[in-house]
Amino acid sequence: MASGEAEDYYGELHGHSDPARAVGWEDATRQAARFEAVARYVREGDRVLDLGAGLGALGRYLAARVEVRYLGIERDPRLFERGRAMQPEVALRCADFMVEALPEAEVVAAVGVLVDGRSLRDDGVRFGRVRALLERVAGAARRVGVVVLLDQDRLEADPIRRREPALGGVRLGEVPWLAARGLEIEVVRVLETDLALVVRAAALRADEPAEVS
User: Fold this and answer.
1) Residue 51 — φ and ψ, nearest 5°?
2) How confident is the model over 14-53, as pLDDT tens digits?
3) Predicted model pTM
4) What domains lie within the chain, and their CATH numbers?
């Protein structure tokens, strides 16, 4: 369940007429840069599961480039209803992706979904949320999961954004500890503010043949 600060954050965003701003992105260009961090791993015909889908914009972005079977899951009912009205052709479901059972997909994405309240200023709580999110993504991914988060060190260095209690991210130095949970994680820099954690849960797929590059 989202905290009061997160509810306030979503409520403020919901009033924006710009779809990119309505889900927390600075502008459509920076939104697209984050989506491209996912698109590079998507193949023709893939199932793509988008956790924290907002208005379903990732589904529309991918459909313009490759044929995919997209499903977006959004836990905020206001964003879900707005997305369904704006893009009825995009498959969306309203559910809490951290609680509900998830369908499997070749690619599972979670782009900018670490939103909560002041508890994220506690490093232990924030790290636990990142770990739980990665495990959810890895558990549903048949090939790869892509989690795009704010760089927590860059966030805290920004005198304006660090005052926003709803936002949280991941530190580069935390990635080895996350990988120790049995996940293979590649880190890709996205813009100057974000990190993409590319997750390959090899231990969960040990019974499958390795891909040949």
Assistant:
1) -90, 130
2) 554 544 444 444 567 888 999 999 999 999 999 999 999 9
3) 0.82
4) 4-203 (3.40.50.150)
Which residues make Cβ contacts (< 8 Å) with residue 49, sequence separation at least 6?
71, 73, 102, 103, 104, 105, 107, 108, 109, 140, 141
pLDDT tens-digit map of 121-157: 788 988 999 999 999 999 999 999 999 999 999 988 9
Tracing tokens 């969960």 back to the chain, one arrives at 204
Q: What angle do CA 118, 121, 122 make, to 5 degrees?
A: 110
CA distances from 137 to 20, 88, 143, 148, 155 (A): 23, 25, 11, 12, 23
45: closest CA among 59, 65, 66?
66
Residue 99 tokens, joined = 């609680």
